[in-house]
Input
Amino acid sequence: MAQVKLEKVWKKYGDVEAVKNLNIDCRDREFLCLLGPSGCGKSSTLRMIAGLEAITSGKVYINDAVVNGIDPYRRDIAMVFENYALYPHRKVYENLAYPLRVQKKPQAEIDARVKRAADILEITPLLDRWPRQLSGGQKQRVAIGRAIVRDPKVFLLDEPISHLDAKLRTHMRGELKRLHRDLDATMIYVTHDQLEAMTMADRIAVLNFGELQQLGTPDDVFNHPQNKFVAGFLGDPPINFLPCRLHKNEAGWQMVHERFKLQLPESVTRKFIRKDLADGMAVDLALRPESFEVFPMQVPGADMTGNVYVTEPLGEDIIIDISIGKEKVKARTVIGGNWQIDAPIWMKVRYDRVHLFDSSTEETLLV
Amino acid sequence: MSGDTVTVAPKRATPPAAPKKKKQPVQMQETILHKRTPVGKIVTWVVLAIWIVWTLAPLVITGLASIKTTREAFATPEYGDWGGVTKIFEFSPTSVHFKRLFTQEGFGSYIWHGLVASVGSALIAVIMGTLGAYGLSRGKFRREGDISFWIISTRMAPAVVVIVPLYYIFRSFGMLSTLPGLIVAYTTFNLSFSLWLIKGFFDDLPIEIEEAAHVDGDSHWAVFRKVAVPLAAPGIVAAFVLCVLFSWNDFLFAAVIGGHRAKTVPVGITELRTTVEVLWGPINSATIILIIPMIALGILIRKYLIQGLTMGAVRE
Output
């Protein structure tokens, strides 16, 4: 197995900078997710690691060896493509056997390895079929099988399950995670689906506009987002931003919104990373839908109030869209209660879950 | 929460048995595009019948005339004498015209020349065309579009335009009246055609399949040989067949470049019209000889041909 390192990697297509100064370090046997919206450079990054795309500048290392300019077939990597890329003119068995045939392995070993991979992925009954006779989920399994028949240094997966239907996708998330554990392999996984990244990854690299926004564990990126983008990209429903001004008063710091004022408790202000906070500076208060408590009546200690805009029951939970002046926020709470549209609603903020971002730099203000 | 009592529906022990489906004959769904009306059916059949008569009648007449004596061949009924139509089919088959072609007119060697020239040039055109098409389809280089257009533009000018310069060029190389000369001449127009046809196929192959083979351990050449070419095979076969047919049918190049020593069937046929008489029987026989390989090839690779001519253009 192996580690992969990207050092100051740039990718330019003409004048377009797809990847900018990327530094990522994928540890041995790690499941690393490259997460970002479409066009953020995550696929380009993966393809540079695979050797399918030339590196404009910077270095890519696999196990301390620079692989810039080395052809894909000499890198000892396996890749699963978004559209599976099975060989349509070969049966499933031959698709799986292909990487071994290239290496001129003896037939007995090919048989054994193909059988093992087929067993792991439960595709043994499909071995004699043509790729065109398979369903999407089966094709995807074959594509993964082709990657695992030989023991590559690194597995690269480019949105392998994004074309499956929702139910199968949920199932395959678990399967892939288990597969990673069983193979004890280094895997780099590209996805635009934050749920996939959160559930499967050891660490997540969040990319936007070709730049690394944050690299950390799922807990890190979710609970300690470095900037507004990361905070907004992870979580469903997405995090709520409320533009405020930060004012100093005798009790400490106060957030002032046109519709409410929040006195920040010491538990929050002690987490300020910067000491040079200006009185009156523009900040974004970021609250996840789970960071409110909502009440249909006035309660002591309520932090803000608004009106119910619409409700979205989800079975167990209910999402309540609340309008606070011009802004709308989403709050999640357990189902029940009688939420009438346009009725007033009171909210308490859970201060241990508050995020604050500098509106001008969009960087976090809290540790 | 409402205070309603919660009732739990008893779980069904077994799901209700699905009604057994009778196997129904496969039927075309009647949709707006596949609407069936009796009038439509009749029109379809009438048009098809006219089309079949129109295309097959000349072949039938030629075929029959090729195995009739000249006297029988000209024994056609009077105009308006519909009963006399049967006369067309009253004859005793003879192979005298075919024998004459091979014994007196030297058609054996004409056929050989035609086969060598057409298959030879088709092979060269397809091999070089496949390589060139792959390069143009996958490679990234400057003025790629211009190069592609230039290649196809060589097929746009009528052959007559280039025949005179080609004649001089071939003469200075001593290639007039030779089979290699004829092969090269045919390749001039077959190559650009096959390159364009095959390029369409490579363009339609998903690049990821080749990238997968790359990652699986194949070099560029191995990917081309083991993945790209097999997947473009229908296009390559179609290009090969069409190149063979173009050359086999060609008259102009064969007459000018092939000259006397590399004469092909179409040129041979024109020489059956002598200053003394027109040898109708042998002309008909020779025509059948000219057509047979085309029909045989067409039937043999019909599947590839249809796929080859449609798949290059239509994205799946």
The interface with chain B takes residues 50-52, 71-73, 75, 77-79, 81-83, 85-89, 98-99, 102-103, 146, 156, 336-337 of chain A (CB under 8 Å). The mean pLDDT of chain A is 93. Chain A has two domains: 4-233, 240-358. The first strand of chain A starts at residue 4 and ends at 13.
